[in-house]
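yo, Carboxylic ester hydrolase is done. seq:
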Amino acid sequence: MSLLVLLGLIAAVPASAAPRSLTISTVKGSVAGASADEVDRFLGIPYAAPPVGAGRWQPPAPAAAWTGNRSATSPGSRCLQFGGYTGPGMSEDCLYLNVYTPAHRKNRPLPVMFWIHGGGFSSGSGDTQDGSLIARTDNVVVVTINYRLGVFGFLDLPGLSKQGAGNYGLLDQQAALRWTQRNIGASGGDASRVTIAGLSVGGHSVCALLASPPARGLFSGAIIQSGGCPSHTVKQAVARGKKYAAAAGCSASPVGLACLRAKPASELQAAAQNFTGGALSGSLPVSGVPELPVAPLKAVRTGRTANVPLLIGHTRDEVRSWAMPFANATKEQYERAVRIEFADEADAVLAHYPFSAYGDSYTGAYAFGAPWRDSSAFQRLGGCQYQDLTAKCAKRQPRTYLYEFNDPHPPTGRPSTGFDPGASHGSELSYLLPRATSQLLSPEQQQSSRETVRYWGSFVSTGTPQPQCSPPGLRTGRERSCPCCRAVRAGP
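structure:
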């Protein structure tokens, strides 16, 4: 197995230039995008019909054709959000994608990175991240997508069609991949070289797609960033669906399903706010159905996934920022929580992570964050289990790489509170798919950004992250960061 250690890297975006108009053709019609900073952008392209009315809780249907040039200079509506995320620009009519492609393309088709956003399957959108940097730096076409979220994307009830029940968001992702196969050539992309990539539940989605038979042949590589392979069984999903229907004032019968379909989206959102306990206890793909016959984790363990190159990894301090609410916890509260969480292993955990090891005003947060970061309690996001998961993948696919993002002070775009989140969950996106934080980078970080993007870009292009180097003094421990990656040999 090859292990890739990727440490301390940041991205930047150059100043904008005046855009120019341009048009490409898709199988449904022409779209008019815009070009700036050496990148052509085609935003808000429909890849499926609006899932509204009778289309609510149905597999995605083909988008309607249009005449003339459809404007593609701004993103489409975001899918309806949950977990307190509100605002304009959200709609059930949300199945849109964005394409970023180098403006000065060569005659040969370019590799494609297909990005799936995170957000707990309850929030997020394709336009949250900007694919311009990777497109410009690595001659890679980037596709970002919206997909249905929360109750609209992952509800399962007995009265729903067997096809897609509980997995509408996953089927949306597959529909967007099929759109990419049919249309990406118009923007210079190579449909035979599509790498699916995602962070957090975007990484969960990548693992589910690896395990999904209908998705076979739609991609040639995969990147899982701080994600895992969790899923619900049909029994679990239906039980959740029945509880949700009751919270929405409907039954779980066919009549109750009609009741749910008749409700305005705002009422369904409100019912979900009262029902879910947060992103991690909410929606997940459902296994034991045609689109996901085997649970993704079991598929990985038994070799029943797509046999493609895989880059998988996490950040050093995955969940530290989530431990911030425990900043004022006492030693007694910390030890009690550890004993509840780790049961028979609590003494060993407390010996390895003593409360006294963290000494400032945020002691509780640092103390809680450390064992959470390293334990399988947060196996969906990061920690020691990544090595085990990667080892299982590598038994079938030798081109499997593991990375750790280890920059101790990545930009967050938020005011400093004195609490150090470290290389927290999702912090590498400032380097790869930057948005507002990009202007906070130092010159050294900007250089590291360019190197990082080239590593990702080389994996998308070839299935192997390059360049790989081993500078003097490089350590792979938690206290050393280096703007470099290297491959090292590991045991079987």
